[in-house]
Amino acid sequence: MTNKKFKSGFVAILGRPNVGKSTFMNHVMGQKIAIMSDKPQTTRNKIQGIYTTENEQIVFIDTPGIHKPHNALGDFMVQSAYSTLRECDVVLFMVAADEPRSTGENMIIERLKKAEVPVILVVNKIDKIHPDRLFEIVADYTSQMEFSEVVPISAKQGNNTERLIDTLSEKLDEGPQYFPEDQITDHPERFLVSEMIREKILLLTREEVPHSIAVTTDQMTRDEETGKIHIMATIIVERKSQKGIILGKGGDMIRKIGKMARRDIEIMLGDKVYLETWVKIKNDWRDRKMDLADFGYNRDDYM
Ligand SMILES: Nc1nc2c(ncn2[C@@H]2O[C@H](COP(=O)(O)OP(=O)(O)OP(=O)(O)O)[C@@H](O)[C@H]2O)c(=O)[nH]1
Ligand SMILES: [Mg+2]
Questions:
Q1: What angle do CA 288, 192, 287 make, to 5 degrees?
Q2: Residue 100, domain extent
Q3: Residue 254: helix, strand or coil by DSSP?
């Protein structure tokens, strides 16, 4: 036992889509809590990653990438992201080193200027640029607003992420351990199962399809005969043509999705899984409040 005071706090990770927010949180947690992909708007809900050591508990809140919404789902995502400003002690504003500052970033910066908590600028993906360019990138952002710290990292390779944790620890006040030490997230297993299926669809499909799907996990029970966990999940699409793409020729695609997702789910649950998936069409669900709520995008989340 050390006689150091226990520190804790909530840390929101904000930024444009695709800058690496979820990759960073998963790296810190040492496991996949939030799904990741090279497609923008991968994360749709706030997701906590609870990082506990003997000296501290940092509750990271991964958020949907802030963008200009084109439907009710987008509205929900952006609202959830901004709502974390009211519930956190520190903000990590993440940008990508390999992309110039855009109007998207400028919009976020205007909001962050009004934040009542310290904002740390995290320049991610430094593995993608020549080190000489870092100075100019940092100078550009710091000319726009005053940040309490600037930390360049590579979330993918893990460069400098420990320094970022140390910097965060310094910023946090003494506080209670909010969650038991073995709790890693605020979402139930069913949510993580749905997300892992959605991740494989993001990986395997293109254009509008990844954005048009939702996944629900309707049942998770242990099959007494086989001893496996029997999971029944539904993939929701917006159009008949999308259903065709998800099923694939002779069911090829859905089998591939199921196989890849099952592997991840088995690792997460530490158990054998039998995954059964169904595909359902719900026209324009992304603009229907009732459907959004049914598929886990509840307004309650940010009100
Ligand atoms: N080269 C490199 N790629 C990275 C790094 N961090 C993330 N990526 C990649 O960037 C892409 C987006 O990563 P995500 O973690 O899904 O990004 P996000 O900010 O959570 O995106 P949204 O959820 O859409 O807002 C993925 O293809 C990652 O592998 C990094 O440090 N270096
Ligand atoms: Mg994400």
A1: 10
A2: 7-171
A3: helix
Distance CA 238, CA 190 (A): 22
Q: Is 19 in the pocket of ligand 1 (CB under 6 A)?
A: yes
Instruction: Say if strands 229-237 and 273-281 run parallel, antiparallel, or are unpaired.
Output: parallel
Q: How far is the CA of 42 from the centre of ligand 2 (A)?
A: 5
Which helix (H) or strand (E) segment is 161 a member of? helix 161-171
Q: Among all chains, which residue has been given the structure tokens 């501290």?
A: 56
Domain count, the chain: 2
- Cβ-proximal residues to 81 (8 Å cutoff; 6+ apart), any chain: 14, 46, 63, 64, 65, 66
- 282 confidence band (pLDDT: 50, 70, 90): very high
Q: Is pLDDT of 298 > 90?
A: no
36 lines ligand 1 (CB under 6 A): yes
My answer on whether 133 and 225 are in the same domain is no
Instruction: Give yes or no: residues 16 and 71 share one domain.
Output: yes
C-alpha of 303 from chain center: 20
Average pLDDT, integer, range 56-70: 98
**Range of weakest confidence among 45-59, 93-107, 288-302:** 288-302
Whose Cα sits closest to atom 9 in ligand 1? Answer: 20
Of 46, 11, 8, nearest to 186 (Cα)? 46
Within this chain, do residues 26 and 153 fall inside the same structural domain, yes or no?
yes
